[in-house]
Write a structure and sequence with these properties.
Strand content of chain A: under 5%
Strand order of the largest sheet of chain A: 1-2
Oligomer: heterodimer
Radius of gyration of chain A: 29 Å
CATH superfamily of one domain in chain A: MetI-like
Order of helices and strands of chain B: EEEHEEEEHEHHHEHEHEEHH
CATH class of one domain in chain A: Mainly Alpha
Largest sheet of chain A: 2 strands, antiparallel
Shape of chain A: flat
Distance between the termini of chain A: 51 Å
Number of helices of chain A: 11
Chain lengths: 287, 253
């Protein structure tokens, strides 16, 4: 019971160890706290799941009806390609910005820094609304009415890409900085051209540091595109909103969108795992 | 014998710190020059100016009669475009202290990279040459391994094979054994010794005095950005004339 056995008294004779100490069985500590915590979490989880399944207001039959309806699938398709376009353009611009930021040219460095500062400062919603109303500043561009040029979908692509590029620039820059400076020197000493150094030596190694945050950004962008519903671009969210404004089945239709976003996110996470493996070549320890 | 490397009054500063304070050195073709000196003496910087990894502030370096990094027009030195410098570098092999192998490429891909992309060799021929070079450094069986799977000594031998793949006229070694565990130093020095025997022109910055004594034709002792003395190893190592040299040798021997 008491704990003051050895510390306060003179040390007792050391435990006599048997010759075959390896035969002494080891009794693991009881981890009571762990078991209690696990049980509590499981109970709460079970309650939540049954509550969701048994609450008729979710109207799972309605969810099933609309899940693969034409308008929802059209919205999903727009969400998917908008995400893809924004990612590709955003990272292309972001890579240029990162290259500018790391260049020896002070003007390029400053402009790149300024870009990232500006576009990270403006909330994407504010930016979309600004582009949407750009006609107020410039009624005519290239001899065309600005409102005809800046359609909702064009505004969505421009706004999201400019926003994405600011973050992509930082991700790519971080990746490049993670590559040992000696790699570039070795490539220079071997006479490899600037282009070759970049594509063959630096970028593949930078990808290891770029892919995880880029995967994060991809998933963030997928969900972030739902913001374009405010300028009436018919993405996944806007498509279900169109339905529930008509039928008032708000919750089941939001569940349709929720499940679709979850499905696509899961697929992307699996893809990221394989991409990461691809760029981990040569990082293992000795065989 | 003809002069392979000619270094004339080379000066180099990093900010306020003058690292090279007027270096004159000439290296004959087929000879091994070992550069010794305490750390911070400028020996690595000097080596790096020879293939223009480091630009000089004043002075000039020529290799095999060609000015490195500049073109002389009248009394002026014009900086060469990067493309030209890269071409010059393909004739000068450089081996780094920390190997700097490309970790995402296999051993053979490391060796093949420069011949294929800088010299435009056909890939199959480059691979055949690379395998022969790997055999020469005793690593034929590691061709398809990744650098991380090799010991430090093996990595450095791959780095030497990679430098040799360009068939350089001159090989520069920047402390090639300083990053190695003591028991791995020998295998790398063996390869360098072997190259010396075959008459490769080399400049080796190192702390291995025994190696210098055995392999060097000329030993150069540097301190504080200057060459303090130079001569055959028997003279510089065993009967140094300068007090600085004696002090250094008494510490490392």
């Amino acid at each position: 019971m008491s704990s003051d056995t050895t510390l306060t008294k003179a040390p007792a004779a050391p435990d006599d160890l048997p010759v075959h100490a390896d035969e002494l069985p080891i009794v693991p500590q009881r981890r009571l706290g762990q078991w209690t915590a696990a049980a509590a979490v499981l109970v709460l989880l079970g309650l939540s799941v049954t509550s969701v399944l048994r609450n008729r207001a979710f109207q799972w039959d309605v969810v099933a009806d609309y899940f693969t309806s034409d308008s929802v699938l059209r919205g999903l398709w727009l969400t998917l390609w908008l995400t893809a376009v924004v990612m590709v353009l955003g990272f292309a611009l972001g890579t240029l910005l990162a290259a500018a930021r790391l260049s020896a040219n002070p003007v390029l460095r400053a402009v790149s820094w300024g870009y990232v500062w500006l576009f990270r400062s403006i909330p994407i919603l504010v930016q979309l609304l600004l582009w949407f109303n750009i006609g107020a500043l410039y009624p005519h561009l290239f001899g065309v009415r600005t409102v005809d040029l800046f359609t909702p979908i064009a505004v969505a692509i421009i706004g999201l890409t400019l926003h994405e590029a600011a973050y992509a620039a930082e991700v790519v820059r971080g990746g490049i900085l993670s590559v040992d400076r000696g790699q570039v020197e070795a490539a220079q000493a071997l006479g490899l051209s600037r282009w070759r150094r970049w594509w063959r030596i630096v970028l593949p190694q930078a990808m290891r540091a770029i892919v995880p945050p880029a995967g994060n950004m991809l998933i963030g962008t997928l969900k972030g595109t739902s913001i374009v519903s405010v300028i009436a671009v018919q993405d996944l969210l806007f498509s279900v909103q169109l339905v529930y404004h008509r039928t008032y089945q708000v919750i089941p239709l939001l569940m349709v969108a929720t499940v679709w976003y979850t499905v696509v996110t899961s697929v992307l996470s699996v893809g990221q795992y394989y991409v990461e493996k691809r760029y981990a070549r040569g990082t293992g320890a000795a065989r | 014998m003809s002069v392979m490397v000619d270094i004339r009054s080379v000066h180099k500063s990093f900010g306020p710190l003058e690292v090279l304070k007027g270096i004159d050195l000439s290296v004959r073709a087929g000879e091994v020059t070992v550069v010794l000196g305490p750390s911070g003496s400028g020996k690595s910087t000097l080596l790096r100016t020879i293939n223009h990894l480091e630009k000089v502030d004043r002075g000039a370096v020529s290799v095999d009669g060609t000015l490195i990094g500049y073109r002389r027009v009248g009394d002026r030195l014009h900086e060469l475009p990067e493309r030209e410098v890269l071409k010059q570098r393909t004739r000068i092999g450089f081996v780094f202290q920390n190997f700097h192998l490309f970790p995402h490429l296999t051993v053979v891909e490391n060796v093949v990279e420069a011949p294929v992309s800088a010299l435009k060799r056909p890939r199959e021929q480059a691979v055949r040459d690379a395998r022969r070079l790997l055999e020469r450094v005793g690593l034929a069986d590691k061709a398809d391994a990744y650098p991380k799977q090799l010991s430090g000594g093996q990595q450095q031998r791959v780095a030497i094979a990679r430098a040799l793949a360009l068939e350089p006229k001159l090989l520069l070694f920047d402390e090639p054994t300083s990053a190695l565990d003591p028991e791995l130093v020998g295998e790398v020095l063996d390869v360098i010794r072997d190259l010396a025997r075959q008459g490769t022109t080399m400049i080796v910055v190192t702390h291995e005095i025994g190696f210098a004594r055995e392999v060097a034709d000329t030993v150069v002792f540097m301190a504080d950005g200057r060459i303090v003395e130079q001569g055959p190893p028997g003279q510089v190592l065993d009967a140094p004339r300068e007090e600085r040299t004696r002090a250094f040798l008494s510490k490392v021997l």
